[in-house]
């Protein structure tokens, strides 16, 4: 389990365990990936954006769970025409808005777009105006949280959010699910809670 020791107020960073670094550099077989629970007192958001083509119909989704892996809230919506980068940022931004609405103070944010995580953690500059708007909103909200951490996970560890982002394409209006997950992700949520391992091919994108 990832350690959250010595995290200062709203210290945003990218976590990578030594074990994962070892796997990335030396392990030649399939990589075992699983969803990890947050520590007691923390809420975890897995978020994802979906885009049809380089720039096309886009949607977002996200799942909040607690240290017992219990489903707290899920969201999905279509956001119109956007790039994949904007969709990923919009998914995180919407998740942050819901964090404020629900009063969660210690939050672990996890997505499967490594470039987005680098943008937020390392404060990298983005050139797209719409992406800039999303980043600005994210940077305004995060300091309001008591503690927060942003990490990257392979897609195999982000399956519930990925599924909700796909569902977003079908929606006419934004949807929020509280306490009980939609049927489409129920099995994934249960598997994640049990620590199911999904194997990823080493050179899979």
UniProtKB/TrEMBL annotation:
<protein>
    <recommendedName>
        <fullName>RNase H type-1 domain-containing protein</fullName>
    </recommendedName>
</protein>
<dbReference type="InterPro" id="IPR053151">
    <property type="entry name" value="RNase_H-like"/>
</dbReference>
<dbReference type="GO" id="GO:0003676">
    <property type="term" value="F:nucleic acid binding"/>
</dbReference>
<dbReference type="GO" id="GO:0004523">
    <property type="term" value="F:RNA-DNA hybrid ribonuclease activity"/>
</dbReference>
<dbReference type="InterPro" id="IPR012337">
    <property type="entry name" value="RNaseH-like_sf"/>
</dbReference>
<dbReference type="InterPro" id="IPR044730">
    <property type="entry name" value="RNase_H-like_dom_plant"/>
</dbReference>
<dbReference type="Pfam" id="PF13456">
    <property type="entry name" value="RVT_3"/>
</dbReference>
<dbReference type="InterPro" id="IPR002156">
    <property type="entry name" value="RNaseH_domain"/>
</dbReference>
<feature type="domain" description="RNase H type-1">
    <location>
        <begin position="39"/>
        <end position="170"/>
    </location>
</feature>
<dbReference type="InterPro" id="IPR036397">
    <property type="entry name" value="RNaseH_sf"/>
</dbReference>
């Amino acid at each position: 389990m990832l350690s959250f020791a010595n995290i200062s107020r709203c210290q945003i960073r990218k976590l990578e365990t030594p074990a994962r670094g070892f796997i990335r550099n030396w392990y030649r077989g399939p990589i075992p990936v699983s969803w990890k629970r947050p520590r007691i007192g923390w809420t975890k958001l897995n978020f994802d954006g979906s885009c049809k083509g380089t720039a096309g119909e886009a949607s977002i989704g996200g799942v909040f769970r607690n240290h017992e892996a219990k489903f707290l809230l899920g969201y999905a919506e279509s956001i119109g025409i956007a790039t994949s980068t904007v969709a990923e940022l919009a998914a995180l931004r919407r998740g942050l808005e819901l964090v404020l609405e629900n009063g969660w103070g210690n939050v672990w944010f996890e997505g499967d777009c490594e470039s987005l995580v680098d943008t937020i953690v390392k404060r990298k500059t983005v050139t797209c105006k719409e992406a800039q708007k999303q980043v600005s909103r994210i940077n305004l909200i995060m300091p309001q949280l008591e503690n927060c951490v942003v990490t990257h996970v392979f897609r195999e560890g982000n399956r519930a959010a990925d599924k909700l982002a796909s569902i977003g394409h079908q929606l006419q209006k934004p949807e929020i699910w509280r306490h009980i997950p939609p049927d489409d992700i129920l099995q994934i949520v249960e598997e994640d809670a049990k620590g199911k391992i999904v194997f990823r091919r080493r050179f899979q994108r």
